[in-house]
Specification:
Blueprint: H1 14-45, H2 48-55, H3 59-66, H4 69-76, H5 94-108, H6 110-119, H7 123-144, H8 151-171, H9 175-179, H10 182-198
């Protein structure tokens, strides 16, 4: 309404201030439902309608925010591994640094676990996992690998250990793996990752 001077009242209303928060909540709900649905049904079988139903919103809202199923999938499994700068880590400690970092990620980021679940159930998810680890782990391996021609191989071997642990501990929940204390995991896994990254070619 205009105020007494005749100027429009520009005071923010509860509705206008709440709108961005509602938008964020809606996006969060959609992404959570999408991760669950993609993991359960795979990329091909998951539908916008089913995801919207899980998120308790109209399917048009999913399309409004993400445009297509491809756009939604890309957003749902977007992951920044936030890998540490190994240039500041002593060379003989890079394995421990990486394992500790990934443990922090798996235990605090449900998106990463959801991505792994999607990756083992369908091709689109597997390709996304491959892209993330290729693009983000390769530079780390390149920084410490003694042979530039082996960077890709060493990064892949390191990924096999990190992803294998996550699959056993956080997705399949194998009892012995799930019961391991963090210190035990680092003690077991770090030397192997260290060897893959920095040891001479066997």
């Amino acid at each position: 309404m205009p105020d007494r001077t005749g100027s429009p009242d520009r005071t923010a209303t509860p509705e206008s201030t709440a709108s961005p928060r509602r938008s964020d909540a809606t996006r969060t709900s959609i992404l959570h439902a999408a991760r669950e649905r993609f993991a359960a049904d795979g990329y091909e079988r998951a539908t916008i309608r089913a995801i919207a139903r899980d998120a308790r919103i109209d399917p048009s809202m999913v399309m409004r925010y993400y445009g297509s199923k491809e756009g939604l999938f890309a957003a749902a499994v977007a992951v920044d591994l936030k890998l540490p700068d190994l240039g500041t880590v002593p060379r003989h400690e890079v394995g421990e640094a990486l394992v500790s970092h990934f443990l922090d990620l798996w235990e605090s980021n449900e998106v990463l676990t959801a991505l792994l679940r999607v990756g083992v159930t369908n091709q689109a998810g597997a390709e996304r996992v491959q892209d993330i680890f290729r693009d983000q782990l390769l530079p780390v391996a390149r920084a410490v690998c003694p042979d530039p021609e082996q960077v890709a191989t060493r990064a892949a071997l390191s990924a096999s250990q990190l992803l294998g642990l996550a699959l056993a501990r956080y997705v399949l929940r194998l009892a012995p793996a799930a019961a391991l204390h963090r210190r035990e995991i680092v003690a077991w896994l770090a030397p192997t990752v260290q060897r893959y990254l920095t040891a001479p070619n066997p």
